[in-house]
Here is the input.
Amino acid sequence: MRGRNGIIVAIVALALLVGAGVQAAEPIRVGAILAVTGPASFLGGPEARTLEMLVEEVNAKGGINGHKVELFIMDSGASPEKAVSFAKQLIEEKKVLAILGPSTSGETMQIKGIAEEGKTILLSCAAAEVIVNPVAKWVFKTPQKDSDAIQAIFNQMKRMKISKIGVLSGNDGFGSAGKGQIEKLAPENGITIVANEVYDKASTDLTAEVTKLKAANVEAIVNWSIVPAQSIVIKNARQIGFQGPIFQSHGFGNIRYVAAAGAAAEGVIFPAGRLLAAEGLPDSNPQKTVLLKYKKDYEAKYKEDASTFGGHAYDAFMILAKAIEKAGSTDKEKVRDVIETMRGFIGTGGVFNFSAQDHNGLGIDAFELLTVKDGKFALYRK
Amino acid sequence: MNLDLFLQYVVAGITYGTIYGIVAIGFNIIYNATGIINFAQGEFVMLGGMTAVTLGRFLPLPAAILAAVLLTTGVGALIEILFIRWLHRPSVLRMIVITIGLSILIRETALHIWGESVRALPYFTGTSVTSIRLGGVYISPQVLWVVGISAVVVAILWGFFRYTLLGMQMRACAANRDAARLCGISAKNMVTLSFMLSAGIGALGGCIVSPITYVQYDSGVPLAIKGFTVAILGGLGNSLASVGAGMLLGILESFSISVLPAAYKDVISVAILLVILFARPSGLFGSAEVARLKEF
Amino acid sequence: MKKQGLQIAGFAAVVVAIQLAASLTGNVYHLTQLTMSAYYSLVVLGLCILTGYAGQISIGHAGFFAIGGYLSALLTTHDLSAHGGPIVSGLAAMGILTRRPDLYGGELLTVHPWPACIFAVLTAVAVAYAIGGPVLKLKGHYLAMATLGFGIIVYRIVLGTELVGSADGIYDVPAFPLLPRVAVSGKSSLQVMNYYVAWGFVILGMVFLLNLVRSRVGRALASIHGAEDAAEAMGIPTARYKLKIFVVSAAFAAVAGVLLTHYNGGVGPSESSVMKSVRYLAIVAIGGMANLWGALLMSLLLNYLSLRGYFGTYDDAVFGVILILIMLFAPDGLLRRQLFEDLKAAVFPAGGEKET
Here is the structure.
């Protein structure tokens, strides 16, 4: 009897081994649609590099649950029609488990329906609220909420007793989203917007606009835009003699923009993920280890400063990886369910707490107020 | 609008107007010699700025700028020799398309060499926050450099075309190609020279303005369009008028934000372009016959 | 006429063959990019007539595509439920407005795709008529610059206007129910149907244009292209014909814009960019300036490759290089008729009649 049991056990064990062996060959296919070139390349470039670095690292360790990761990065150039074409290609042809990205909100909204129809996980690296609000089953995003960023700024303004501000914003989705949130949250925070200008995001000179704001006697300027305008605004503002505090969006999160603005960047205040000033964090901060490691690895491999944008891709991939590991399978439904119930996940953008109603997982504490001191990012302590 | 705000707008307008004028002069030089509108003109400006920034890392600033200008001049010559020189009586359509293609090629090459980030040279004097105060108006010292150097360039060009042998040869070629050739002037070389001059001037413009406006791999296209608008506004082929027309466009754009949302600032220059093209293609200062006769 | 019919039939056969091959081998997903290529080809065909046959260069045609796409998208996504009023109710009663559910279970009152499409195309046509007059009076680089300017203005307007989504564009555009059971939609279950719908439009367009080329207007066009002043002297109303062709090409682009927008479910400012216009021009150039079939084949090939990411980060550069190479070495395009005649003569040396 025992002998036969032994044989049965051996056969089952053998079958399992063989099955596992066969399984181990099957790679996990992950797609990424990023704007590596084109008008949003400051987002897509670091994101693509981050993903490549992470996949290499993971595969060197043997993959996730023994499966290697196969990453398909497709450069959409921030074109929605390319994003649509690639999304369909990734879902139907490459049959990916999940799509990371896209880099911009416009593209994300265009493929949101495709991801839902194709029942494929979408972990967007774009910031717009509408991506996760209203919540769609398969769509998540890793960047923090605009409204939280603005609330962080308003909290600081209240501490500084500022009540009259001037708002400048770029004419793209990011700028108009920020402007909308600023206008919405200002009244309940006791802030009055006395001047409000929208400029072309590719403007090369904003002297006229800041002059208008200065003439309206604003106590502080809030600028919500991306590169290069964010560096140009602060330069122009200081050149015409504006002395008040200047607040920027979390789009300022790359040391290059500080370098581009030179001396004008000193003292700029902006909310951002803690990645940029990770060294200054107390050791008790839960994110510190993750941040320092990402920074070190990225800067060593690519010889350029890490930015919060690459961090969004880092979070997207690591969340997916953790979910696959925990689910123990590559079944899309199962992995999605794990993501949705993930709590306390430490990423670069903050500590993520997902739920069925919250597919972003970050709150206002994901932000830290940063400033520029001697040409470097530093925690703002006031 | 008080006087200070008004003057501040004017200063901003003059700064940009000068650059548009420089680009327009580049267009005019090539147009005069060849009848071609060089769509890649803006890329020369971009190349000058980008090269100078890269060289500025190991050369002192003046040397970096000089080297960048010379390198870009070389690129201009290279383009002419490789792509234009050996064409035999090409149609206007063909030339337009070729220069558009060149513009794309240069832009994509710049993208793959330098990446997508913006770059800037350091301010020639002072930093990004120094400003000189004249009454209620704040001017960055860089603005004075831009206007000053541009004025010098225009003066030198004027002297070149008027008083030097080479300049007069180019003018002869522009006026009447065949007659010039009969006089022993090598028309082909004049064409190459015109490309080199345009490239060099454009590059210098890119260097002096980059601290203020930054350069990026795709800075060339909007500049080319505005430069072309200014060239047409002043009358195609008339370099001196380009300077004035440039100022005009710069100031119009600057003031436009007081009536239009700033997001539409770029529409102004294109709208002006279309109006000029429809109403008076010979420009403000040009004559109708000159506008029609140019052929390669 | 017979030759043309054979060509069309042959092409249709190829279209069907591709679909069958894709479906039978389980590679149906290729149909997506082929469908998108078909719509882009409509723009190319219109541009081919304008640039190749009538000799009027346009580097702004993406602007017409955008006018069609954006207007249709705006009308079919803008929720009018908040507006009470007699006009809205009246339009709703007439069936011009329709109620439909949105992605999240709410209800929208928007314009039905059919009237939206008609409005969009008519607007594009009106714009073409309006600017066509002054623009087509220009020649050479002035004409090129004017069309470039037009394209840029459209781009700047859609980029700067919040109503049409600024840089993000418009999304959640519904399917376009052309006929009771036929809809232009991106749903994967309707992939095969949409493939045939798209190529059906292309074939219709080809038939129309081929007839146009052979008609009196077409012959007049050829003479305008050859020597405009001579044509004028012969009494051909060149200005009127040029304008007609300009409007036709604008209409083609606008229709393509409407259909592709409904297929993709959205549209963005990138569709009206200068690079897009340059691409269309590059394809017309490589296909042979005055060669409709050449342009169609090249459009199919190049757009398909581009949409599948084949060119990677060099996507724009590829089209730039194509333009330069073609213009330098083969200004009449690669697939020019002369080439085929030469080949034919080379293969059948005896008795080969050379057409000029």
User: Anything to note?
Assistant: The first helix of chain A runs from residue 2 to 25.
